[in-house]
Specification:
six-stranded parallel β-sheet; binds uridine-5'-diphosphate-xylopyranose; alpha/beta; binds nicotinamide-adenine-dinucleotide; Rossmann fold
């Protein structure tokens, strides 16, 4: 089975390497030549645990290839996946489909023999049909079907998520396309991963509805965290008690600084726009987005309060910049809202992150300083703000932290620590909803 993956980003590279692991012959194509050159040299352009080994193994096995050119690989392909970005469009909040449509148009003239063209990018309902129309317009004689195969992997655990998915969704219109996709995913039969076959529109909407639902769970518990602060309840215990109900489930009920990342923020906005286009409103998702924005603002107020009412001239050590641990992705990270607000009010912000600092430099105010080590960030700090729960921040040596700092303010925005432990070490502890 010959597979082409258009887009060698977080999704394209992981999916491509995993399909190669399944035994397919995969070529990842990207329009950034430097990205392809790096991959050919064996350098992985993103940080994703385990990806370097997976790529190296499949390159060595002759199953995984990289190319800047579409023509050759597309001509040989049985399946072509479009895994390019669909960022929020400036101005109206909708998903920007220009990269998807450009990929569809670019590949059309190189098709040979029957090919299945698969949207893996997260795309609004109707995109697969538009891809179909564009390919047909560019190449009237091509033999092809379009399918939708949304991706549910999470960054930081992407390979495990891809190789052991809760389900695979296949939106198809022909038995031939379905058979080819089922063949590609056949190794998952061994672990009895469910495959849900739907029409194109349902597959496209499943992805948005799933992401919006998960984002809603997070905003819900973040709203409850405020109620906990007002009433003296502990949000960790409330979430635990809620999650023990099988109908609710314990996952995605961790209160924190608000969700970020390359998916939830943009996909919730896009869902709202899809509803509007159909003359509907998506009030629950609108509230989810609003609560998320206010949660980030609430974190700034929380830090200010912990510092005694003003962050001016205070040195704040921020541990963690990426939107979640085990990734270098800074897209829509809560740090991008929280740090500028602190710096704006005159705080001296010194940040540390195991993987995200290079990316963060171009996105955060110039006044933010970056520390090579966690200890350096903590030196003479008035406050420590734990913003992303990287493992190395979970087991801090509190005595040493206290020695490095000049103040004793400990703001735990991920509820990683127990209050008693932190207070016993001489800190004033602030968390979220506890
Ligand atoms: P990304 O920005 O990391 O990667 C996209 C890649 O596509 C880039 O390297 C870009 O150069 C390349 N590209 C764009 N146009 C191209 C073209 N015409 N030809 C060849 N290459 C082209 O994006 P991502 O995070 O991998 O996301 C891709 C899609 O997958 C999005 O729709 C996203 O919503 C969805 N998704 C992402 C995740 C995630 O965790 N990142 C999870 C599930 C779904
Ligand atoms: C998400 C979806 O989970 C995944 O299925 C989809 O394919 C892409 O988008 P990702 O953005 O990589 O994955 O990470 P995820 O683990 O979902 O976290 C997203 C954000 O929500 C992070 O900022 C995280 O810190 C936050 N979050 C998550 C919480 O605040 N509380 C939780 O309980 C879970």
């Amino acid at each position: 089975m010959n597979v082409v993956m258009i887009g060698a980003g977080y999704v394209g590279l992981v999916s491509g390497a995993c399909f190669a692991e399944f035994g397919a012959r995969v070529t990842c194509v990207d329009k950034q030549p430097e990205r392809i050159d790096a991959l050919k040299r064996g350098e992985i352009p993103i940080y994703e645990p385990g990806l370097d080994d997976l790529v190296a193994r499949n390159v060595a096995g002759g199953r995984l290839h990289f190319s800047s050119e579409l023509a050759g690989p597309v001509a040989e392909a049985d399946l072509i996946f479009i895994a390019v970005g669909t960022p929020t469009r400036r101005g109206d909040g909708h998903a920007d489909l220009k990269y998807v449509y450009a990929a569809a148009t670019e590949l059309a003239n190189h098709l040979q023999g029957y090919t299945v063209i698969v949207d893996k990018s997260t795309v609004p309902v109707g995109t697969a049909r538009e891809v179909q129309r564009l390919v047909r317009k560019a190449n009237a004689d091509a033999a092809f079907d379009v399918a939708s195969n949304p991706e549910f992997l999470r960054e930081g655990s992407a390979i495990g998520d891809f190789l052991r998915p809760d389900r695979v969704v296949l939106g198809v219109e022909s038995a031939r396309a379905e058979a080819r996709l089922r063949e590609l995913y056949r190794p998952l039969n061994l672990i009895e991963a469910p495959i849900l076959v739907t029409d194109l529109e349902s597959a496209e909407l499943i992805k948005y509805a799933a992401n919006a639902f998960l984002a809603t769970k997070i905003s819900f518990i973040n709203e409850v965290s405020q109620l906990c602060e007002a009433t003296g309840a502990d949000v960790n215990l409330v979430a635990k008690g809620m999650g023990m109900d099988g109908r609710i489930g314990s996952k995605f009920l961790h209160a924190g600084p608000g969700y970020g990342g390359s998916c939830f923020p943009k996909d919730t906005l896009a869902l709202i726009r899809i509803a509007q286009e159909h003359g509907l409103s998506s009030r629950i998702v609108e509230a989810t987005v609003e609560v998320n924005a206010s949660q980030k603002a609430r974190m700034v107020a929380k830090i200010r309060q912990a510092l005694g009412g003003s962050e001016a001239d205070k040195r704040i050590a921020v541990l963690g910049l990426t939107f979640k641990p085990e990734t270098d992705d800074m897209r829509d990270a809560p740090s991008l809202a929280i740090l500028p607000a602190l710096a704006d009010k005159g705080a001296e912000v010194v940040a540390h992150d195991p993987e995200g600092m290079e990316e963060a430099r171009g996105l955060l105010p110039d006044t933010v300083r970056y520390a090579a080590t966690m200890e350096e960030a903590l030196e003479d700090a008035d406050a420590l703000v734990l913003l992303t729960e990287w493992n190395q921040y979970r087991g801090l040596d509190l005595t040493r932290v206290r020695e490095h700092m000049r103040g004793n303010v400990f703001v735990d925005l991920r509820n990683v620590y127990e209050r008693a432990l932190i207070e016993a070490a001489g800190f004033a502890y602030t968390a979220v909803g506890r």
